[in-house]
């Protein structure tokens, strides 16, 4: 997992771990962080594929404006991964045709 676990100013990282599933694979996240942050910490940059050309898409603005990060969460489509906190046992799926596992 790619994280700063002991920051010189903020101190040690002390958050409860949660597990989410992305495209059928379990990943560890930390409570109150976004879906996008959890996936990025696990090395995942492609969140979906574009409708027209099936090109990979990921985090762009990171603040909920562009909708490039939209994913399906627990069956609900077009949820913005960058502003949606992870919850334990959350099921997240890419939108588009291709799926990376
Ligand atoms: S990255 Fe722009 S809305 Fe999520």
Automatic annotation (TrEMBL):
Question: Pfam families per the record?
Answer: Fer2_4
Q: Which domain of life is it from?
A: Bacteria
Q: Which InterPro entries match?
A: 2Fe-2S-bd_N, 2Fe-2S_ferredoxin-like_sf
Q: Which GO terms describe its molecular function?
A: iron-sulfur cluster binding; oxidoreductase activity
Q: Identify the keywords attached in UniProt to this record, alphabetized.
A: Oxidoreductase
- UniProt key word Cytoplasm: no
Instruction: Please identify the protein, giving its name as recorded.
Output: (2Fe-2S)-binding protein
């Amino acid at each position: 997992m790619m994280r700063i676990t002991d920051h010189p100013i903020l101190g040690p990282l002390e958050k409860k771990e949660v597990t989410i599933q992305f495209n059928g694979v379990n990943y560890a996240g930390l409570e109150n962080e976004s879906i996008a942050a959890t996936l990025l910490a696990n090395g995942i940059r492609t969140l979906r594929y574009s409708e027209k050309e099936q090109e990979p898409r990921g985090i762009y603005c990171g603040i909920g404006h562009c909708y490039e990060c939209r994913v399906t969460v627990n069956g609900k489509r077009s949820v913005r991964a960058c502003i949606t906190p992870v919850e334990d046992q959350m099921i997240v799926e890419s939108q588009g045709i291709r799926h990376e596992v």
